[in-house]
Design goal:
This protein is of the alpha/beta class. The chain contains six helices and eleven strands.
Length: about 220
């Protein structure tokens, strides 16, 4: 009976609170001010530190030529025998570097590394924001063992709010049906509470950040 009585007391308080509205004014709620600590570090440094802390692999490239050199090195180092890509602009870069790749979707399940762009990089959380509007779609970022993301310094934003604002400005009323953030390789501890990396997605996530912001003289 004690449990029932306690439950009835709680429900009674809830009913009373709903019936008798508070006379205190809530005032204006500030939804725009920054709630997180602002770092003095450049966004690319913040992202590199936070992304690396999540076991992501970060590679900075001064230009697309350096990206090709780095990509070839890591491809050999990680034994990427099959590279898959659906993004037209990335295909052009890979062709310039004479890097072999496939865009045959029937081979998607058998690929080692999937190469995609992203919508933006979130510096504060070290996350990659992607959407279903990208040419790579929903599947490529999760099907391959290695997810390779090509991004540019102009795509860096401070936090998730800024990323969502960027997507809204880009797509207007045609918001993508899927907006997601990737924070390092997939992981789970569901099996005997043992952390397993790459259990339900890529076991490694690489971000090649290409500098595309002109240096001020």
């Amino acid at each position: 009976m004690t449990d029932v009585t306690s439950r009835e007391k709680i429900l009674k308080k809830i009913r009373k609170a709903l019936t008798n509205k508070s006379t205190h004014e809530m005032g204006d709620v500030d939804l725009e001010s920054e709630i997180y600590h602002t770092s003095d570090e450049p966004l690319e440094i913040q992202f590199a530190q936070n992304f690396s802390a999540l076991n992501g692999k970060f590679i900075f490239c001064e230009n697309e030529t350096e990206f090709i050199e780095n990509f070839v090195f890591f491809s050999k180092d990680n034994n990427w025998k099959t590279v898959f890509c659906l993004e037209p602009d990335i295909k052009d870069i890979l062709k310039k570097g004479k890097i072999k790749f496939s865009d045959n979707e029937e081979q998607l399940l058998n690929t080692d590394a999937g190469v995609t762009f992203c919508e933006c990089l979130i510096a504060r959380t070290g996350s990659i924001m992607i959407t279903s509007k990208q040419a790579s779609g929903r599947r490529l970022p999760v099907y391959s063992n290695y997810h390779i993301v090509i991004a540019y310094t102009s795509q860096l934003v401070n936090n998730i709010k800024d990323g969502l604002k960027l997507i809204k400005n880009k797509y207007g009323s045609k918001i993508p049906s899927m907006i997601s953030t990737i924070s390092g390789p997939s992981r789970t501890a569901d099996i005997e509470k043992t952390l397993v990396q790459g259990a339900h997605g890529p076991k490694e996530v690489f971000v090649f950040l290409i500098d595309d912001i002109p240096v001020e003289e």
